[in-house]
Amino acid sequence: MKSYTDIYEDYHKNVYLYAEKEYSWYKQADNLKDAVRKAFLSEDEQGKVHPHQRRVGRQRLALAADIALKHLDTQCVIDFDNFNSIYQFVQDVRNKIEGFGELANYDVALRITKYLGFELQEVYLHAGVTIGFRALGLNVEERDIIPVEYFPEPFNLLSGDHLENLLCIYKEMLDHSSAELAITCICTKTNYYCTNKNGCI
After folding, report:
1. Which of 13, 136, 162, 196 is 20 to 30 A removed from 67 (C-alpha atoms)?
2. At what angle do helices 83-94 and 58-73 cross, to 10 degrees?
């Protein structure tokens, strides 16, 4: 049985640098418009579409990029001062294209965020990330954005995007992991978190 520290160290050894290399490609955009275009097209340096967006398809990704660039002309750049505002920008484009899902929304927003140099302090629960979140024994009702600080050590040392990666990639391992500390439970009404092994009452 792996401990949380084992999983954290394995992520740093086998995933962290690979993810940072992927982010660096999107950081190399010439300007904001180029960054937005690259983010929506979802291609790597070799021109291959990211696995997460293959089901969306090149045609819809290109259409989304065109819509985004036109939308950007009417968007005040000062609005792009945090991940949430960028996510909403992408969502406005997503709403115009059938088959452009929530995961694509997150990935594209993250790429633009990386270009702008912001660091995520929250984890957005979606798809496999939610499974990994539940595997930790965390229970938050009616919330899909969780601050990094609420996660148990050492996971709370990661930025939100890396923690999102870890929860998704290691979701099955987390389901059979053990914590060095008691299970953390977040109480939605107060945003208070406890370490009661039996969870919040």
Report:
1. 162
2. 120
